């Protein structure tokens, strides 16, 4: 009788603990959703205030960005296209650097490296993700830009190429870590089947393992691109503060010159003189809304593509 009572009390206690833990997790999940909704609503509210002062068409199609400096005609300019150009340029070039490099690192760690080598290289790669972004920007300004000038490239002190290189280095750990997890989750039976058909290690890795893990690899690419789009301090320090329209026919010249991204523009507006209530102040929220739409669209599109590419193994 005593044992039965003790077991019943223990079961009640465990049930109460389980309910309490469930409540904590539910609260955390609800808090996350509420914070996200609060951020989105704030963006929409203050961006609406901005668009009440500056026409949407002027913002989306304008080719000049001078929110705190009067132009020759005595007006402020709020065209987002130069900032969007700088953001796209740096994101694309950094992706060209980071995506193949990160995937190659992930493939080596997953398929070729020994356990000892993996235990050293993987933490070393992930250390890159822990370095403050301002340090990357300073590194680009002090070391990468002088190196590019030394090898003959006509780079200015602040330039998009140096910023693209450091942003590419920054997102390599994200690509390699997530891709390596995706590659490692591929069932070993697929590898053994490929070996049984006479495939080499390289052929098996490239033609069997990578296609089988393509949905996870694609997810790592999208997360890395979102990270590159939202990067702030590294591009603020390395790329400069010159909004510049992207010229398709002169990409090389765009890379060598100073540029400004959406995030850098938000930092510069926040540091500019002038209090709240001005169009310049509310332009930060309009820029934030543009970033939100960009990353949200990217992630929704990626989710659709990933679902189509996903393969399930039993």
Order of strands, main sheet, comes to: 1-2
Quaternary structure state of the chains depicted: single chain
The helix tally amounts to: 13
Question: What is the 3D form?
Answer: globular
Low-confidence stretches: none
Radius of gyration: 25 Å
Topology (SSEs and partners):
Elements (H helix, E strand, L loop, with lengths): L1 H52 L2 H6 L3 E2 L10 E2 L2 H32 L2 H13 L5 H18 L9 H25 L3 H9 L4 H12 L1 H17 L2 H7 L11 H6 L5 H10 L7 H31 L5
Antiparallel strand pairs: 1-2
Account of the protein in words:
This protein has 314 residues and is an all-alpha fold. It is built from 13 helices and 2 strands, in the order ααββααααααααααα. The protein has helices spanning 2-53, 56-61, 81-112, 115-127, 133-150, 160-184, 188-196, 201-212, 214-230, 233-239, 251-256, 262-271, 279-309, and strands spanning 65-66, 77-78. The chain has a two-stranded antiparallel ribbon. Helix 6 (160-184) runs antiparallel to helix 9 (214-230) and helix 9 (214-230) packs antiparallel against helix 13. The chain is globular. The model has no long low-confidence stretch (mean pLDDT 86).
């Amino acid at each position: 009788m005593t044992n039965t009572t003790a077991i019943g009390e223990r079961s009640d206690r465990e049930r109460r603990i389980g309910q309490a833990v469930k409540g904590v997790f539910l609260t955390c999940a609800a808090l996350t959703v509420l914070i996200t909704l609060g951020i989105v609503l704030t963006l929409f509210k203050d961006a609406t205030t901005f668009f009440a002062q500056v026409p949407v068409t002027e913002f989306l199609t304008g080719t000049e960005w001078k929110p705190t400096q009067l132009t020759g005609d005595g007006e402020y300019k709020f065209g987002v296209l130069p900032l969007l150009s700088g953001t796209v340029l740096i994101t694309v070039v950094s992706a060209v650097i980071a995506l193949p490099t990160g995937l190659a690192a992930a493939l080596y760690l997953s398929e070729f490296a020994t356990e000892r080598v993996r235990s050293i290289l993987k933490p070393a790669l992930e250390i890159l993700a822990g370095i403050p972004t301002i340090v990357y920007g300073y590194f680009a300004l002090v070391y990468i830009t002088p190196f590019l000038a030394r090898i003959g490239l006509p780079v200015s002190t602040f330039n998009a190429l140096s910023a693209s290189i450091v942003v590419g280095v920054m997102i390599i750990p994200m690509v390699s870590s997530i891709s390596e997890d995706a590659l490692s989750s591929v069932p070993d039976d697929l590898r053994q089947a490929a070996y049984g058909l006479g495939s080499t290690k390289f052929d098996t890795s490239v033609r069997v393992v990578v296609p089988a893990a393509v949905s996870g690899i694609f997810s790592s690419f999208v997360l890395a691109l979102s990270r590159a789009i939202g990067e702030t301090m590294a591009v603020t320090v390395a790329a400069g503060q010159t909004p510049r329209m992207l010229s398709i026919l002169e990409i090389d010249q765009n890379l060598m010159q100073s540029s400004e991204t959406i995030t850098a523009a938000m930092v510069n507006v926040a540091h500019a003189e002038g209090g709240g209530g001005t169009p310049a102040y509310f332009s930060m929220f309009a820029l934030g809304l543009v970033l939100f739409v960009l990353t949200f669209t990217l992630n929704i599109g990626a989710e659709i593509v990933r679902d189509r590419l996903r393969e399930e193994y039993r």
